[in-house]
Amino acid sequence: MVIEALRGPSVDLFDGLAESVVKELMQQAQARRIPADTLLFSEGQPARAVHVLLSGFVKMVQTTPCGEHVITRYIKPGETFGTPALLNGVYPAEAITVTNCVELQWPASIINDLMSQHPGVVRNALRDLEARLREMESRLKDLSSGTVEQRIAHALSKLAHKFGRLVPDGVEIPFPLSRQDLADLAGTTLHTVSRTLGSWEVQGQIRRGRRRVIVKDVAALALLGTQGASPGPRPRRTHRRAGSRSR
Fold first, then answer.
1. Which of 79, 126, 227, 238 is deepest in the core (most CB within 10 A)?
2. CA–CA separation, 61 vs 218, rounded Å?
3. Is 69 exposed, middle or buried (0-12, 13-18, 19+ CB in 10 A)?
4. Residue 79 pLDDT class (50, 70, 90 cuts)
């Protein structure tokens, strides 16, 4: 399986490392095939390993004191997660596979040694941390302002932008995305998401099927998320000929 891993996507954390160093790291890794809907680690669990996703998708989920679930982010192939292990911390969220996945993991000591020997890896980790902070700042801004419809549109357009793949009738989000998942992302209720998606589907802006969502026009949806303009078709304009004034 490690040989298969070498043919996988580039790993952001290892960007710039010599190929020989990466191959040695791969030989030290524990590689696992994991089915969908599997818990990789739990929120609050002591972090012992650093994980890299090679294929499939993973979601990170936190639970509020009221028992509600919040999806903090989705992870795509090539991304690193579980990095609190580098600081002897705890996992701040639970990691759940959304699809069948292949991952690599290393004891934190191996990655810490790598950082000591190759400062470029530290820069890669800081770059990843900055990207996550910007993403969380954007999420907080979305949740604290705008209408519910805007928040749903923003969440859906971001998923399409980051993960989407082109299909004949638009951009498909390539993993199961339930209405509850979208409600968790947008900070709203299942009923509101169902009503909003139903309206957009009638308008022809999205298509749903087999727990997949296809966005017909990502730019229009992104515009709705920022400006609140309706992504629906424009109403027909009626043209009336002005009647002649009577003298």
1. 79
2. 25
3. middle
4. very high
